[in-house]
Amino acid sequence: MTKKKDDTDYKAIAEQLAAESAQLTEALQRERADAVNLRRRHDEQIASLRTTVKATVVKDLLPIIDNFERALGHVPSDIEGNDFVKGVQSIVKQFEKTLSNIGVERIKTVGEPFDPHYHEAVSMEPGNGEQEMVSEELQSGYRLGEDVIRHAMVRVKG
């Protein structure tokens, strides 16, 4: 009779240990999933923060390139080939290449359909009325991915 009682005790203990093992395994799997989700959310937040910081720095630098471009737009014709003017043109190209390398794109304007997500219309000219089209760019706009850093200021023909 003792042998049956011992077998029953061992079976009960084995079943209890198996149940505890299953519970612990399930808890461990949940913790691992939580850790993976936490890591993923952290990586997403870091990427978002990098994009925000990059956009903020670029936004602060845009007036500088605007002024360079304005200056180049008013170069007298008698000094267009001057080395100083070529140097300023090189600076503007280098700035644009650097922006491109970090993922910043100039928003397309003239000849494009007006898109209020990217363009800010400052005036409207009468047109054929079929579709509002950008007729002139007054200030360049820039975007980083789908995020607009600065809207392009444009004239629209509609």
Structure description:
The protein has helices at residues 2-73, 83-101; strands at residues 104-106, 119-125, 133-139, 142-144, 147-150, 152-157. With 158 residues, it is α+β, with helices and mostly antiparallel strands. The chain has a domain at 106-158: Nucleotide Exchange Factor Grpe, Chain A, domain 2. It contains two helices and six strands. The protein is elongated.
Low-confidence stretches: none
Instruction: Count every helix, treating DSSP H or I runs of 4 or more residues as helices.
Output: 2
Radius of gyration: 32 Å
CATH superfamily of the domain at 106-158: Head domain of nucleotide exchange factor GrpE
CATH-assigned fold name of the domain at 106-158: Nucleotide Exchange Factor Grpe, Chain A, domain 2
Beta-strand portion reads 15-25%
Q: Classify the secondary structure makeup into a structural class.
A: alpha+beta
CATH class of the domain at 106-158: Mainly Beta
How many beta strands in the DSSP annotation? 6
The arrangement of helices and strands along the chain is HHEEEEEE
Q: Strand arrangement, largest sheet?
A: 1-4-5
Q: Which sheet architecture does the biggest sheet show? A: 3 strands, antiparallel
Mean residue pLDDT: 92
Overall morphology? elongated
Q: What CATH architecture label of the domain at 106-158 applies?
A: Roll
Oligomer classification: single chain
Query: Gap between N and C termini, in Å?
Result: 100 Å
* Overall helicity: 55-70%
